[in-house]
Specification:
67% of the residues lie in helices and 7% in strands. By secondary structure, the chain is an alpha+beta fold.
Amino acid sequence: MRISLFQFNWQQYLRLLFLLFAVGFVASGSVTWVAANWDSFNKFEKLYATQALLSLSFVLLTWRLRKSVGFSHYAFAFLSAVLIGALLALIGQIYQTGADTWELFAWWCLLQLTLLCILPNIANALLFIATANIATFLLLDAHFYFVFDAPYYLMGLNLCFVLVSEFFHRTFHDQQWRILPKISNLLFLLNVFMQYGLEYNALIVLFISLVGLFLYKQRKGDIFCLALYFSSTILAVNMALLTYGKDSDESLILMMFVLTISAFIGGMIYLKKIFAEKYPRLEFNWVIQLMMLFFACLVGLLLIGVLVFVFNIPEESSLLFTAILLLFASIIAKAKQIAPFIIQMLLAMGGIVSMVYFFASGDDQEIYMLCLMLIYCTVIFFITEAHWVRILAVLLVLTTICWQQQDFILQYTGIFYSLLMLLTAALLLGLSQLKQEKWLNILKPIAWAGIISVFALPFFDVTDWQLTLFDTPLESLSPTFFAQVTQDFFSPPWSLTKILFMAVCCLPLVIFLYFNKSQETSLKSTALITLVLLFMAVSFISNPVILFIFGLLLLAHINHSYLLFSLTIIMMLDNLGQYYYNLNLPLLYKSFLLLGVGVIFSLVSVWLWYENKPRQTSPALSDTNTAQSAVKNSPVFSLKMVVNLVILVTMLIGANYLIQQNEDVLNNGEPIILPLAPVDPRSLMQGDYMALNYQLLEEIPSLNRLQEQNEASLDQQNDPLKPYKLYVLLEINAQHIAHFCAVETEIPTEFKHCTKGVYLPIKVTKYDGYKLPTHSYFFAEGKDQYYAQAKYGEYRFKQGKALLLRLLDEDLHAL
């Protein structure tokens, strides 16, 4: 029997929360520590450490296969799949053989497939779908002739995923949530529209959408896929009318508008009926509400087209007229007690059109427009009780404020963002205590709009706030660990920004203490958690978002919100990723902070487990041992364990054979030193690698000239867009410095006046020109100025394979 997340008691949920953060901090800290010490490891330590982690993950997975399948099996299987990709990427980065990126993803897909067959699950299947799509796209992108037809091939690939996910959903344990069919169908339809929509083959799109609609109409359980194909059908019908319609613009747009409105009303009635049959106790469905938002945008645009082209109303005036018309229509519909979803649609359309009018009107009357939007959205908010429309109204107001007052907000970003987080947390805290339905319906949409805003703002320039929190310049910070990780937060002068940051950082502690009063938590656990949350507040004072996230997760349990829990976990992962790229802190200090806090959180989780560990009775233990023994002795699981180990050994043999081959080239190959040509300074240093250009490539005759000289040989490359290989023969002096000598279209056997037995394979494309195996060189953080003095690149060549060994300065000394 599976226990629901919010069936955990308060102590169990706290243990889970500390464990999740411990895993996140330790994982992020480990990656950061490796990055900080990357230059201290030689390539073999990097390669064999990654192989050791991969082996450990496979061994743990094999060991866990002795017991009944659970979360740990899927976790180790997913970790193994990720580590396979990490090993392949590491080999490619270290040796830079010039292989196409698609080959890396293709091999990763192939090796993942073996794991997926042994232990089918949703997480590994999603990773496989993602890497397969990326590999296919990169393959097609590498062959320019096919790139324009890339959606056609991706469409076929994702159609296969749709079929597999539908026929084997029980195998992947996806019968409840049906995540794989949803993702596969979404990717399939996106590529259908990209392939045929851009070519105006609307009838093909319409046919595919109708087939999908018919098939999922038979499977009434999947509301998402049914809504997806219904929306694509309406969109395809409009595309067909635009493509093949012969009427005047006025009648065509009017026909599209009437057809879309009619289809929407019919579709909504049908979908709500199906939803009511499947979930009789629920009123909320995010799929239906997303579909309503989509149609609100589509119908709103068509209505504007009707007013402009049919009634000849000026464009800007038509926006204002449409917004007012929709508002009055919704009021009349509410008075006439028309179906609620129609009222919600009218209000959402009105809000979206009013926002378009706001952006189109310019900045001439800022205060007037701000007041107008505020009044309009307030009216929308109180006309309906539908949460999604109210959330949209609040978001429109926030968007208007951010846009109108962007200079002010940019100047006081820390204050604005802190107030937004505090207000959102306060609203969620209030929701957990309110009992009156009226106030819940008012405050809940405002709280959710705040959550969405906090999630969304970091993706815009307005929230580059972590780099401008305080007035203290980074170079003037004290070199001590505490001063660096807190950015001298506790040094004077004090400001409103610092006070608000302290308030945000104290949120987890305040929420915990407030709700812990009514729980049966021991005094020791309460004191321990209080001290740890205080320590976390001080440690991450320069990154208060992570404490806001912890507070939200506490509130998710209190409000019994799965959606809030899921979104906040995603936000936590995103924040840890952004924290890695925060240039305010040295990598080594960040790694110590993350690892230290992660270890403390792990100890708290262990303490909470020890204090509240369940007491099992003997019969239960006996039954558990009997079940586990049955699984252990199952021949199916024994076979899977053997196959799993065979796969691991095969991968390690293949990886080490490839490493040995590359090392043989680097150690025993012929030295070829190529002078580096200048590149655009803006693209010379890009993060932790530098772009390389070679003087040799500038010495090779142009493509047009080569085609004239080798017309007969190059004619067989009858596709001018498809990449192909040429072989450059070299003149190498006593210092091993190479210059262009000749070029061949086949692997050379005669070298004439050039250096015998040495050549460089180059890739030729119409758009990128000539390319050697390596055009970038990776280095550790902070070494950009050191490697900027490079003047030569030293290759090693053996048996047709060329690898970049190192960079050299102007005196040919290795860097």
